[in-house]
Amino acid sequence: MQVNCLSFRQPYAGFILNGIKTIETRWRPLLSELKNCTLAIHVAQRDWEGSEWRELLTDALSINPAQVEELLDAGERFGRGVIAGLVDVGETWQCPESLATDDLQDLQRRAVLPGLQGKYLTVLSSPRWLKEPLFSRGHKDLWTVEIPIRLLPAPPTP
Asked: ASCH domain: from which residue to which, for each copy (predicted)?
């Protein structure tokens, strides 16, 4: 199966594949052309710089510190430098500079990131882990990968 792939730093790759992060943010509409397509998730070698995600998990999502550690461990199940899973790409839009506080907080919870104004937001859904990791060097922006059929997860049950 040939699909587009995008590299994510941890903990965000794990958050996407474990269904915690359902909105991806970028300063340009990188994923807008992939609406209704599947995207492969590559786990980068490096971590995300900053820890604002931790506060959003504990405060906005009411996840306790032990659960945060479990989430981090779950996101590392295949290690780094691998294509670990797939996600479906939805609508992309630019977050307005002014947005009602409740709406902004909801988007920040779904993105697990503050400061969304002006960024392009893309809905991600149906995350699924591959049966085993596919080792691959990361790239900047999107690239195309070939995922062997034997690694594809079972289709979701309706």
From this structure: 6-103
